[in-house]
# Entry
Amino acid sequence: MKYIGNKSRLIGFIEDCLKEHNINYNNVIVYDLFSGTGSVSEFFLRHNCIVLSCDNMNYAIAEQYRKLYFRKEPKFEELRNIINCEELEDVINYLNNHNGQKRYYYENFCEEGKYHRRFFSERNAMKIDAIREKIDEWKDILPKEKYMFLVGILMNAADFVSNTAGTYGAYLKIWRSMALKEMKLEIPEFIATGKISLYVNDVVEFVKINKTADIVYMDPPYNTRQYPAYFSTLESIVINDKQQLKGKSGLRNYEKQKSKFSIKKYVKEEFKNLVDEIKAKYIVMSYSTEGILNKDYIYDILSKKGKTKIYDVSYRRFKTNSWTENNTNLKELLFICEVR
# Structure
């Protein structure tokens, strides 16, 4: 899944810093805050950790149900008497073979629909409608984790054929080649180690109610970009509440999902509140030198919690059309605090 701020390219850097700091990251309890699509959670799972992952966006948690929740292919015995199959491959084939329908996603996200938005081809928008309705018919039949697993598979498949440059703040004026291909649900790979629990929650509230972790990793948003606006279309697919959308790009009402970490007048207080509530042996935090929180302020707050060291690595800014090629002196920071 295409995602702003994804730490996949920085996992090696994070691991090197943990090693240099002599932190054990095998078989421990980890909280992953602002977890996004779960690249850091995946790293800890591969080291057989127990991970509690928290993000306030439903599409992010759906993606993690897709690729991180199950250790092996789940069976869908709950559907045996409904669709005459229970193996995952058969369930996916059943959904892929559904005929398209002209409903909510057709009207809101394809050019032929009522609002003429070009996020998906007509055929793919109709497939999203048909498959999403079918999965929702099973909501009360399937356990939550299996339901969200299927929703995540659909969302990921839709993202793969979206007519965007990576975010959903706008669609492209011309069709990208991938957007014209037929959407196809795919079975993900499974991680055999570790265990993960997934939470849609405010991170401050999350750490208030959970017990001590060995490592708390957090990757807060660092600028004024509000993620709900940039991934509104995917959030609509996951929640499926069929909101009346606004504007040319079909934005959801995301007032309740705004992050204080992306609002300058609130971010300092919110960061301090979060750090104060954390109960852990180590706090590990990713940030950027172009973030709205000052590097010295972060260090000061963390130092009051425990001995803190800062690591950094040069990093290129991500744009929706390409990676910047010029040297922008941008650095990715990693703060490691050994809590007293």
